[in-house]
Amino acid sequence: MTMEKIQFSCADFTFPLLSHVNVLKLIQMMGFSAVDLGVFEGRSHLIPGEIAKNPEKEGKRLLQDLDFFGLNVADVFLQPGEAPSVAAVNTPLHSVKDRNRVLFMRMLDFTNTLGCRHMTGLPGVAHPGESSTNDWHRAVEETMWRFEKAKSAGITYAVEPHIGSILPDVESTVKFIKDCPGLGITLDYGHFIYVGLTNESVHPLINYATHFHARGGAKGKLQTIVKENTIDFRSIIHKFLESSYSGYICLEYVYQDWEGCNRTDNVSETILLYEHLKKQLTSVDPVSI
User: Fold this and answer.
1) Which of 79, 83, 150, 214 has CB 3.0 to 4.6 Å from 157, enough for a Cys bridge?
2) Which CATH number belongs to the domain containing residue 134 in this structure?
3) Would you say 166 and 136 are in contact if contact means Cβ atoms under 8 Å apart?
4) Which of 257, 241, 260 is nearest to 249 (CA)?
């Protein structure tokens, strides 16, 4: 069992108050060789609506900065709306669905230009006045459309289960994966631990993970400092090695006025958690796995 397959990245949206060039510089200074790019409409350094005007040009421009700092792109995280409920993948509005599809295809071009092989999206939300069955079926249909288009482009597409979505727990997430054959997930334990689920109940989702978000979390705290963290990263890494996980672990602290996610020192906590994860990775005995 080799341990070199698991690599680390850091999210650029961890540091929204810096210019993007300085974000990349900081990520490199902290010892990372890869970055997760947040492409969130109206609230990130990289805006999908702007990139979509000329995705190849925007990708080549960004590559210059990435190459300068020696960074690869681990994941492109696409959110076409300022909130998960805006322009959701399972929108009942045909006009929004059509715009989403055009945007997605252009973001595939952008991702390919960057040489990135993984994209993350959201699974969808419940829409007022719509039945849960229809919301679910639309989410499955559009997610599979994205998955197949990405696959044809040589890119792995995954969704991130999260609080406030149609995938707020382990049971719904497993059902969605079964309804979307081949689909993987970008797994963030924080969304499950926050609502009181145990680490053990979330562990089965590791088998479906193609990307992983890591930050401190605890019951009632979507994001917290490492000292308060109750996510069992040692067991997670052990299970990663058992399952021959070969994706990235992304340090994904965020800074926004939502669920108290603006109360951590993201530089310090990223460094502390990064060191903790590397220590856990090197301390696991591969002979015992």
Assistant:
1) 150
2) 3.20.20.150
3) yes
4) 241
Q: pLDDT tier at 284 (50, 70, 90 boundaries)?
A: low
Closest among 48, 223, 39, 56 to 120, alpha carbons compared:
39
- CA-nearest of 120, 127, 67, 137 to 93 is 127
CB atoms within 10 A of CB 196: 9
For residue 3, give every residue at least 6 positions away whose Cβ sits within 8 Å of its Cβ, in sequence order, or none.
241, 281, 282, 284, 286
Query: Which residue bears the tokens 């992983």?
Result: 212
Q: Would 197 be classed as within a structural domain?
A: yes
Answer yes or no: is 112 within a domain.
yes
In the chain, how many domains are there? Answer: 1
**pLDDT score for 263:** 85
pLDDT digits (tens, 9 = 90+) for 136-156: 999 999 999 999 999 999 999
DSSP bridge partners of 184: 158
Q: Cα separation of 169 and 213, whole Å?
A: 16
Which residue in the block uniquely carries the two structure tokens 């559009």?
Answer: 142
* Within a domain: 162: yes
Using one digit for the tens of pLDDT, what is the confidence trace for 55-107?
A: 999 999 999 999 999 999 999 999 999 999 999 999 999 999 999 999 999 99
Q: Is residue 2 part of a domain?
A: no
Q: What is the pLDDT of residue 285?
A: 53
Q: Which domain holds residue 161?
A: 7-288
The answer for 10, left when phi > 0, alpha when psi is -120 to 50, beta otherwise, is beta
SS (H, E, C) 130-181: CCHHHHHHHHHHHHHHHHHHHHHCCCEEEECCCCCCCCCCHHHHHHHHHHCC
